[in-house]
Design brief:
With 391 residues, the chain is an alpha/beta fold. It is built from 14 helices and 17 strands. Strands 5, 6, 10, 11, 12, 13, 14 and 15 form an 8-stranded mixed β-sheet that branches. Strands 8-2-1-9-17-16 form a 6-stranded mixed β-sheet. It binds flavin-adenine dinucleotide. Flavin-adenine dinucleotide binds next to helix 1, strand 3 and helix 10.
């Protein structure tokens, strides 16, 4: 079997590892438009659950990844200069680049071919006529754009602007910080991902963005402006820029994920707002789900047999049928969270404790009772606050 994978992000690399490890006779070719160390971005977040999957499916890469991890137990909400800690929220962060380097090395070790600096624009890119093509070229997928009738994408560019920085200020919790100035409201999402660096994503609504005049600011001016907004939070540390530019979050859905022997996965297929920190998790779990379909299937027919291609198409259809409901559920959680950040002006008047509660329950995934299980003291405080406000 010959497999062509377009895009060497977490989805493409992780599927390659699982497939090659379990089916060593398969020929797997990854095409990546960048070099191995070119990625942009800072750290990504994993839940404990994702880590368990990584350990179960490929222990060597799991062990490398967890060596590099920073972990924390709390969410922290900073509002009106008050810091509210909510416990029972175990997460880990790792540099995106470090994680990709680990997956790349593992691919090399087991015999997956990665061709770097190779940009793919069409599905006839591989003269060997691959038996399976996996499209995982990220949120702005070229293949999705060039083959709209295969996937029927539904794209929605959201109104808020966001920008991704690093900083040497260490945020020991997944921290949500709200600050206001004369132009409007700013939110920062921050978390450590190694011993010396944290991710610091800033988000604001379009009115705030206009009022602040970001359209005419240089990268440096933007950075300095935001350092001032979050002066109290950065503790004198600068923001670190790495191609840090304002963008609008692109909500991606596709009506179809499969066309004959072609499947689309990861961010190219679906996105979930970064405020619930699950893009990498979903990409890795897509890879696991697709791999499981092949593992579950009967022994593959011989590639020369006429039944081979239809058999592959059936496996891909089964992947879509099983995976789509899970993704849609996640996208709904993420959408609730996205709406809250788009409408922050309706919440900014809240007492810090109420604000923290609103943030914790924003995706409707975490109910009042589940939150009590995580941090009974926090829930007790909020119940007391509400009782007192009724007196
Ligand atoms: C601000 C921000 C914060 C985030 N925070 C988190 C977080 O905390 N936790 C988390 O889990 N996720 C986070 N994410 C999301 C995460 O980075 C992605 O969801 C995840 O990497 C998706 O994996 P992927 O493999 O589908 O795509 P990508 O990681 O985007 O990989 C796609 C790859 O394809 C390559 N490529 C693109 N086009 C072509 C082409 N035409 N030919 C060849 N190669 C191509 C790209 O160079 C890239 O390497 C965040 C994203 C943003 C923007």
């Amino acid at each position: 079997m010959h497999i062509s994978i377009i895009g060497g992000g977490p989805a493409g690399l992780y599927f390659s590892i699982l497939a090659k490890k379990n089916f060593p006779e398969w020929d797997i070719q990854v095409y990546e438009r960048n070099g191995p160390n070119d990625t942009f971005g800072w750290g990504v977040v994993f839940s404990d659950r994702t880590l368990q999957y990584l350990e179960e499916y490929d222990k060597p890469s799991h062990d490398e990844i967890t060596k590099e991890f920073e972990t924390w137990e709390n969410v922290e909400v900073v509002h009106d200069d008050e810091h509210i800690l909510i416990g029972g929220n175990k997460f880990s962060g790792i540099s995106r680049l470090k994680m990709l380097n680990i997956l790349q090395a593992r691919c090399e070790e087991i015999g997956v071919n990665i061709e770097y600096h190779k940009e793919i624009k069409d599905l006839d890119h591989d003269p060997t006529k691959p038996d399976l093509i996996i499209v995982c070229d990220g949120v702005n997928s070229t293949i999705r754009r060039n083959y709209p009738s295969y996937f029927e994408p539904e794209l929605s560019s959201r109104s808020n602007k966001y920008i991704w920085f690093g900083t040497n200020k260490i945020f020991n919790a997944l921290t949500l910080t709200f600050r206001q100035n004369a132009t409007g409201i700013f939110a920062a999402h921050s978390y450590k991902f190694n011993k010396t660096t944290s991710t610091f994503v800033v988000e604001c609504d379009p009115e705030t963005w206009e009022n602040a005049g970001f359209a005419s600011m240089s990268e440096d001016e933007t950075r300095l402006y935001l350092e001032k907004v979050f002066e109290k939070d950065l503790g004198g540390n600068p923001l670190l820029s790495n191609r840090s530019l304002w963008i609008n979050f692109l909500l991606v859905k596709n009506k179809y994920w499969v066309h004959e022997n072609i499947v689309i996965m990861g961010d190219a297929a679906h996105t979930a707002h970064f405020s619930i920190g699950s893009g990498t998790k979903l990409a890795l779990e897509d890879a696991i789900a697709l791999f499981n379909e092949f593992r579950r299937g009967q022994a593959l027919p011989d590639p020369d047999e006429a039944t081979f291609r239809p058999y592959i198409a059936e496996i891909l259809k089964s992947y879509e049928a099983n995976r789509r409901p899970k993704i849609e559920e996640y996208q709904q959680f993420a959408y609730d969270s996205l709406l809250l950040f788009e409408n922050l002006k309706d919440y900014i008047h809240l007492d810090p404790l109420e604000m923290a509660y609103t943030m914790m329950t924003r995706s409707k995934k975490l109910t009042h009772e589940k939150l009590r299980g995580r941090d009974p003291q926090f829930v007790h405080k909020i119940e007391e606050l509400r009782r007192n406000s009724l007196l």
